[in-house]
Amino acid sequence: MDETGLPQGWEVRHSNSKNLPYYFNTVERVSRWEPPQGTDTEKLKKYMAVHHSASQGPDTARPKGKIRAAHLLVKHRDSRRPASWREAQISRTKEEAMIIIKGHEEKIKSGATTLGELAMSESDCSSARKRGDLGYFGKGDMQQEFEEAAFGLQPGQMSGVVETASGLHLIERLE
To answer: What is the pLDDT of residues 35-47, one digit of tens each?
Structure first.
């Protein structure tokens, strides 16, 4: 295991099409979005924060009918895909996930940190590398509960906890 915390034969690569890092096994020649079994998630978090935290991209005009938002996702074992870049298999209960996300919400509301800063190390979504930024999306692009919450926010405003099939979210409307 090296500084990435990945098992032997695995490395972090960058997808040009999605502008996100992914995991590649150089022996088996397979890739995946979630870290492989046997990953030291603490080492990986530190490595990703240093080497793969995205900077904000250039300003672009907002496409008509679309908004831009960032989020922090906490998955639980009943999420539709209970795995993430942080954990190969998520075993926490929904109640435990709620306690975690409420703690994140308090830190953000108190001004101790921002959603974008916290998302880079704590979000279970691969958008963590982009400070949780999901880019522009329109109606019908996201899960209904997420979309309703995001479109109901004003730019700069953060939602309370939003529950979807993916897990529990805090959403910040950026534009």
So the answer is: 899 999 888 888 8
